[in-house]
Specification:
The protein is an alpha+beta fold and 376 residues long. The protein contains 11 helices and 5 strands; from the N terminus they run αααααααααβαββαββ. Keywords: ATP-binding, Kinase, Membrane, Nucleotide-binding, Phosphoprotein, Transferase, Transmembrane, Transmembrane helix, Two-component regulatory system.
Length: 376
């Protein structure tokens, strides 16, 4: 609808200018009637040709430039065609056609002069009108391109914002998944090991059965507490009470080792940190998670082997943690694992500014070594 309105307006403007020029031609008594008739036909054809200016702007502008040399009634159509050319085409074709129109501008007033206007004045007016419509069309084209550029930038910014939101959600889900693995794997492995012991040793002494059942009960309770804490992180503010359970620190390692010993593991802890209480909370939590995952893996893949945990370091030097265990000497039923624990530990250490390595030991067994920064 907008294009039709613009086309009709351009056609009427060209007709108006053509009628004014035709009136000037008729007012000249030296002009024969046949020339007036031909001018009227040429002017009408030039006005009608404007309906194809969007499809062939260059060809139309060139044709009207040539016709305008001998037909003053086509001047209005020529100006509109030059304006449309400047709007719809880049600078190079516009400059070439405009240069041609400016070059032939003196020819029309020279071939068919207006008795009331001098040749110089007619030439100056024609040149100024051509420059005006060309400049106006280029301004309109620049404005349209600016609007399109701004729209494209807005669309791209919206798409990038959506991608950033998706990436943030994905990272948040990955962080929650790693946290769930680190927190729950330790508890659930205890449940699996002791439930398996009760299954394969139904004739165990009552005291041992009671101890295993107690470990299963405590581990299940701790797993539920950990799960409740993680789900609390997923709740929006105001949906429930925030968990007030304290986070593990470097001082919590003693309790973790005692829990593993109570479950039947052989764990040796060598803590050479002078003041564990002075360790930053984030550092202590990371060390605790690394030790927890190492004990869980040892319980899964090397049951019955002694695990050695060694901590050393202090402020300014960083903190080193080593977890070593020999290869199992007796066949055992493997507990299935996801294989993501050590990857998560490596990422944890990297995010904390340190590094972590793991792999088989030269004499057999498996070792995990990590270094974490500790600011002075």
């Amino acid at each position: 609808m907008r294009d039709w309105a613009v086309d009709i307006t351009a056609f009427l403007c060209a007709v108006g200018v053509g009628l004014l020029a035709l009136g000037t031609v008729e007012a000249d008594p030296t002009t024969p009637d046949a020339a007036v008739f031909v001018d009227a036909l040429a002017g009408g054809a030039a006005c009608c040709a404007l309906w194809v200016r969007r499809r062939w702007p260059v060809a139309l502008a060139v044709a009207l430039t040539v016709i305008g040399i001998v037909e003053p009634v086509a001047a209005g159509s020529l100006l509109i065609a030059l304006f449309s050319l400047a709007v719809h085409r880049p600078f190079k074709p516009v400059a070439l056609v405009a240069a041609g129109a400016l070059a032939v501008a003196p020819l029309q007033p020279w071939l068919r002069p207006d008795p009331g206007v001098s040749l110089i004045a007619s030439t100056i007016i024609g040149v100024l009108l051509i420059l005006l419509v060309i400049s106006w069309g280029m301004v309109v084209r620049s404005g349209r391109q600016l609007v399109l550029t701004l729209r494209e930038r807005a669309r791209r910014a919206e798409a990038e914002a959506g991608l950033r939101a998706e990436q943030a959600q994905r990272l948040a889900r990955e962080a929650i998944a790693r946290e769930m693995h680190d927190v729950l794997a330790h508890r659930l492995t205890l449940l699996s090991v002791h439930a398996g012991a009760l299954e394969f040793r139904p004739d165990a002494p009552p005291a041992e059965v009671a101890r295993a059942a107690g470990v299963i009960r405590d581990s299940a309770h701790e797993a539920l507490q950990d799960l409740r804490e993680i789900i609390g992180v997923l709740r929006a503010p105001g949906e429930g009470d925030e968990s007030d359970r304290p986070q593990p620190t470097l001082l919590s390692l003693e309790a973790l080792v005692a829990e593993s010993r109570h479950a039947g593991m052989k764990v040796t802890l060598g803590n050479r940190v002078a003041d564990p209480a002075a360790a930053p909370a984030a550092l202590g939590r990371t060390v605790y998670r690394i030790a927890q995952e190492c004990l869980t893996n040892a319980r899964k893949h090397a049951p019955g082997s002694e695990v050695t945990l060694i901590l050393a370091g202090g402020p300014g030097d960083g903190l080193t943690i080593e977890a070593l265990n020999p290869a199992p000497v007796e066949p055992f039923e493997r507990v299935p694992g996801s294989g993501q624990g050590l990857i998560g530990l490596t990422e944890r250490a990297t995010l904390a500014g340190g590094h972590l390595g793991h792999g088989p030991e030269p004499g057999g067994g498996f070792g995990v070594r990590a270094w974490l920064p500790w600011a002075a």
